[in-house]
Amino acid sequence: MAKKSKKQQSGGTPATVALTEAGVAYTVHAYEHDPSHPSYGEEAAEAMGVSPERVFKTLVADVDGALVVAVVPVAGSLDLKALATAVGGKRAAMADPAAAERTTGYVRGGISPLGQRRKLRTVLDSSAAGHTTICVSAGRRGLEVELSPADLATLTEAVSAPVGRA
Hints:
alpha+beta, five-stranded mixed sheet
């Protein structure tokens, strides 16, 4: 079993630990998660009082047999064909949820693009660049981090592409 850092032991998640260790400015937003809400991302936007265009969901897809992370606004959906194109692939489909959880180390609805167990190729929807800050999962349902899109792209080594659709 992996040894947890002091920050993780004191309540941080791998995502917040990664942000802290990188020296990146971020704000944590916690809210009471309602398991009956139909959309994790929309629930987060409502609970934080943030426009859904600024709250991004982390989705894991299978592109030609390799898992890839897509970070898109909760106000829309993922364009799988555009995602495949963005990473030089031919076909994309949503990943098996169990494989996504196993690979990232997070549970569905709390998958963060940061601090993943195994770092996956990441594509950040190009709309993120239009915001000073965006919110993404901090690695647990009911916990979001707000940071600049540039910092998120740098830390995840993301490529920017129009992979979200309204």
